């Protein structure tokens, strides 16, 4: 390994990154075509930043003119799922149980940049990100030798599995590229089979409009009726196509304490607690250090109402009734009334009748 590559790898591991790989900062022609094909198929749903006329996606030099290499870094966020505490709780995807990874990783990437600059001097230029620019991060991670595309459309790394964040540094350094890793799903189709909404039926593309992760986090409107029951217990994100993946069977828990569930909302959240959040200020105060802020109060209560209806959460019933009678937000009200229509309870039926909801 060249000295520069060794130096960068050593700094990355010292700072706690779980894997590092390097590739050239060239445009990725084929990935770009796939991205455009995906978008033209309508699979991006309403994710505005991916629908812009000139998304940066596969062109690192549009971000850093002098770019020569992309240094990709992986951060394991896996923590074990505690037992389901029962019907009064909703599930949170593993990546979101702790602190907001955008903030944690931004700080760490900055330290990484500073350490490299200290070692090699002021001529070092770089831009670093994780999930904050529309760059095809998975394609660059794959090209950096950090794994392969699974049929669930995620990058799979041996031995890390797929529960990791991808970060990258676009830099002006000429560094020897890492060797591409070979790997394949073979005949396995577990993720496609387990997906409750058939979002992976177009694999190797994912129809985000059907994906529970998109519906619960990115999508701001009224969830289509036919998808609500399929959302099951999920109030934020979805992990099912990772849970079943054989590459995730023997993985280690994260060494990043920031991503442990004690620092955030946790794997299971009380539906009653969420449904009783009365204002945006209260929502912000509770979740401002976590990725949950993305849904805002409206989205999280909408999701919690659906899960309460799916699980017939007893504790949530008084909160749902209160929301049906007092909440001003029409999106929240719509989902609350849908949830109440699922309960066999007389009080719930009376509220539905009052608001003319078909039971
Ligand atoms: C938009 C987005 C989403 C959308 C769409 C996901 C998707 N698969 O497209 C939604 C909201 C659904 C989502 C969900 C999740 N996401 Co997300 N998401 C992104 C984001 C911002 C962009 C991804 C993107 O560009 N999609 C567009 C598609 C076309 O690009 P692509 O998936 O890279 O597609 C490539 C291949 O599929 C292939 N391909 C596509 N079509 C075709 C067709 C043919 C013929 C061929 C041969 C190949 C091919 O080529 C494409 C280009 O290289 C990235 C961050 C980033 N900037 O990259 C994170 C990112 C992909 N998400 C991430 C995570 C963690 C998740 C979730 C696990 C979170 C959760 N638990 O809820 C889920 C997983 C759902 C899933 N199975 O993918 C991580 C993934 C880490 C990993 N191990 O790969 C990323 C990289 C964020 C990060 N920096 O860590 N996400
Ligand atoms: S995250 Fe869930 S809904 Fe989305 S593709 Fe995977 S299993 Fe399907
Ligand atoms: S579950 Fe099977 S098909 Fe899906 S990503 Fe994992 S190995 Fe590939």
Walk me through what this model shows.
The protein is of the alpha+beta class and 359 residues long. It folds into 2 domains: 3-79 and 100-171, no CATH class; 190-248 and 261-354, no CATH class. Helices cover 37% and strands 11% of the residues. The chain has a 4-stranded antiparallel sheet with strand order 1-2-7-4, with helices on both faces. The longest helix is centred in the N-terminal third of the chain and has 20 residues, at 101-120. The site of cobalamin has 37 residues, from helix 2, helix 5, strand 7 and helix 7.
In short:
This protein is α+β, with helices and mostly antiparallel strands and 359 residues long. The protein is built from 15 helices and nine strands. The model has no long low-confidence stretch (mean pLDDT 96).
């Amino acid at each position: 390994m060249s000295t520069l590559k060794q130096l960068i790898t050593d700094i990355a591991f010292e700072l706690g990154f779980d894997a590092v790989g390097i590739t050239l900062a060239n445009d990725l022609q084929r990935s770009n075509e796939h991205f455009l094909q995906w978008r033209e198929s309508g699979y991006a749903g309403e994710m505005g930043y991916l629908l812009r006329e000139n998304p940066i996606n596969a062109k690192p030099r549009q971000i850093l003119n002098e770019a020569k290499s992309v240094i990709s870094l992986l951060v394991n966020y896996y923590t074990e799922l505690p037992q389901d505490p029962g019907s009064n709780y909703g599930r949170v995807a593993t990546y979101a149980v702790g602190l907001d990874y955008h903030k944690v990783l931004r700080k760490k990437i900055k330290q990484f940049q500073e350490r490299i600059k200290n070692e090699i001097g002021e001529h070092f230029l770089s831009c670093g990100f994780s999930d904050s620019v529309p760059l095809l991060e998975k394609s660059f991670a794959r090209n950096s030798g950090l794994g392969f595309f699974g049929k669930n459309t995620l990058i799979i790394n041996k031995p890390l599995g797929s529960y990791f964040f991808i970060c990258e540094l676009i830099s002006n350094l000429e560094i020897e590229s890492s060797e591409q890793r070979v790997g394949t799903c073979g005949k396995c189709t577990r993720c496609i089979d387990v997906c409750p909404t058939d979002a992976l039926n177009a694999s190797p593309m994912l129809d985000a409009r059907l994906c529970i992760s998109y519906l619960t986090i990115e999508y701001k409107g009224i969830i289509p009726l036919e998808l609500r029951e399929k959302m099951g217990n999920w109030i934020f994100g979805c992990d099912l196509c990772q849970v079943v993946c054989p590459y995730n069977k023997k993985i280690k828990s994260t060494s990043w304490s920031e991503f442990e569930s004690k620092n955030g909302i946790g794997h299971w959240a009380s539906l009653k607690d969420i449904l009783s959040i009365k204002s945006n200020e209260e929502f912000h105060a509770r979740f401002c250090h976590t990725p949950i802020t993305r849904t805002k109060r409206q989205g999280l209560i909408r999701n919690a109402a659906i899960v309460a209806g799916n699980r017939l959460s007893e504790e949530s019933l008084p909160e749902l009734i209160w929301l049906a009678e007092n909440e001003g937000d029409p999106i929240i009200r719509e989902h609350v009334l849908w949830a109440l229509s699922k309960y066999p309870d007389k009080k719930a039926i009376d509220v539905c009748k009052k608001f003319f909801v078909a039971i």
